[in-house]
């Protein structure tokens, strides 16, 4: 699975109607709703959208015939193996009816083109871990952990004797990395998963 690195836009004209897709990464449903509200145009005829966050998803046809806008946008998201993504496709009607098939192609195609050109990052499932270690072990622990792929140091708080680290470790490597910290500190580090 992948997610977007930032907001992406794509527009095209189809039979005198203008379609504008705006896509962005979202962390949760509240952020998705805020994104949709911020990027919908009240002066447009339709603001159709879809978002996917893990197993949760929603979509809207916003007045277009049922199944001709929101579902094709969602299929564009799923077709490119994206997660934690919201897309709104705004249509300004140009006077020519596109028919059901034309609407599906227009909304789905605009969303897909927008998502194709966006920069993406692989989504790596991670687990939160807290490590308390002494100052004498801190430099080595940080060096070894940050050298491992997909490890993120979320915060570092200093105590009287050392530091408390909050990290995100990739699920696939978490057990090995925890064992590594235990080994290099000779068991002195306190590790909480």
UniProtKB/TrEMBL annotation:
Q: Which SUPFAM superfamilies match?
A: Ribosomal protein S5 domain 2-like
Tell me where in this chain the UPF0029 domain is found.
Answer: 131-188
One Pfam family linked to the record: DUF1949
UniProt GO BP: regulation of translational initiation
State the PROSITE patterns in the record. Answer: UPF0029 (PS00910)
Q: Which InterPro entries match?
A: Impact, Impact_N, Impact_N_sf, Ribosomal_Su5_D2-typ_SF, UPF0029_Impact_C, UPF0029_Impact_CS
Domain annotation Impact N-terminal: ranges:
15-115
Q: Name one GO cellular component term.
A: cytoplasm
Family the UniProt entry places it in? Belongs to the IMPACT family.
- This chain's protein is named Putative YigZ family protein
